[in-house]
Design goal:
313 residues, alpha+beta, globular, Thrombin, subunit H
Length: 313
């Protein structure tokens, strides 16, 4: 997890409020991103923070009908510690390929467990990582996005999903509602505040830059469900809902004192597809709605969140 540090006094005042004011937050974030500090996954982990947290609403493996993501299929999200969700993450984008974070990826030989339903006692599939590589952008810079490959494709009979990558032809993702997935298989719901390309400096001798987006962490109307990443969430997925199904938008990457966010996966589609083409694999894509339509979708999702919260109470 990237921990963004070294602020001037004005930045500190913004950070302490944990308040979003239009598009200024990512501007502040990017002003300090050049001094990002990489925190390895072996450091102290914590459960992802969610506004108004309730186990039967936010924890997938509580296996409740009130689960925030009950309408969607999260079977393609795997972890090296299984249902505990305290290991490293992988999100399938084909039967054999997955994405994660370059600073917290499952290496060769790592076993990843996927569950076909939200019942941890139900059917599961365990695959073994064969190899992987960091995604390198068009300018030759390393990113915090990792593409991995299992030793064999997950069979259809395992009933494990893989996800299309959500893509905006205009490159506009601001305001997009996203489900944020982290430790310990916990789900929140945020909105993208802003996106930008930012050099993150040198980590372990490697120049790192990436297309980032930042998630707001102030309450939705009613104070519902917004997530704030913690160490250990790196590499977990962030999804939008497109045509009633999940589409991958980001992989958890960084936290600050006031925001957290992810690598914008669709920005790297050409690089991902070029690597997958080496084995004749394909990454599916789906077009995300434009901002005018997003607010209508968001309103419907918010009403759904209110209904689940009341049912769980």
């Amino acid at each position: 997890m990237w921990i963004l540090k070294s602020y001037n006094r004005a930045d500190v005042r913004v950070i302490k409020t944990r308040h979003r004011t239009g598009g200024v937050v990512l501007g502040v974030l990017l002003a300090i991103a050049g001094t990002a500090l990489l925190v390895g996954w072996g450091q102290c982990r914590a459960d992802m923070e969610v506004q108004g947290y309730s186990a039967n609403v936010n924890d997938r493996f509580d296996n409740s009908s009130s689960f925030l993501g009950e309408a969607y299929n999260f079977s393609g999200v795997g972890n090296s510690s299984g249902a505990a969700g305290t290991g490293v993450w992988a999100t399938m984008i084909s039967p054999q390929y997955f994405v994660s974070a370059s600073h917290a990826y499952p290496g060769p030989g790592t076993q990843l467990t996927f569950y076909s339903t939200n019942n941890p006692a139900g059917s599961s599939y365990t695959g073994t990582v064969a190899s992987g590589t960091p995604i390198i952008d068009a300018s030759g810079n390393y990113t915090d996005l990792w593409l991995g490959e299992l030793t064999q494709p997950i069979p259809t009979s395992a009933d494990i999903s893989n996800y299309p990558i959500g893509y905006s032809p205009t490159g506009n993702y601001d305001g997009l509602g996203i489900y944020v997935y982290g430790v310990p298989n916990r789900l929140g719901y945020n909105h993208i505040v802003d996106t930008a390309m930012q050099a993150l400096g040198v980590q372990n001798g490697t120049e790192v830059s990436e297309s980032l987006y930042s998630n707001g962490f102030d309450p939705l109307p009613g104070g519902l469900e917004e997530a704030y990443l913690q160490p250990g969430d790196s590499g977990g997925p962030e999804f939008a809902v497109v045509n009633g199904s999940l589409a991958l938008i980001g992989t958890n990457s960084f936290i600050t004192g006031f925001q957290s966010g992810a690598v914008l996966v669709p920005y790297y589609l050409p690089q991902i597809q070029a690597l997958m083409n080496l084995t004749d694999a394909q990454a599916a894509t789906v077009t995300v709605p434009e901002p005018v339509a997003l607010w209508l979708i968001t309103a419907g999702l918010w009403l759904s969140l209110v209904s689940r919260r009341r049912r769980a109470a």
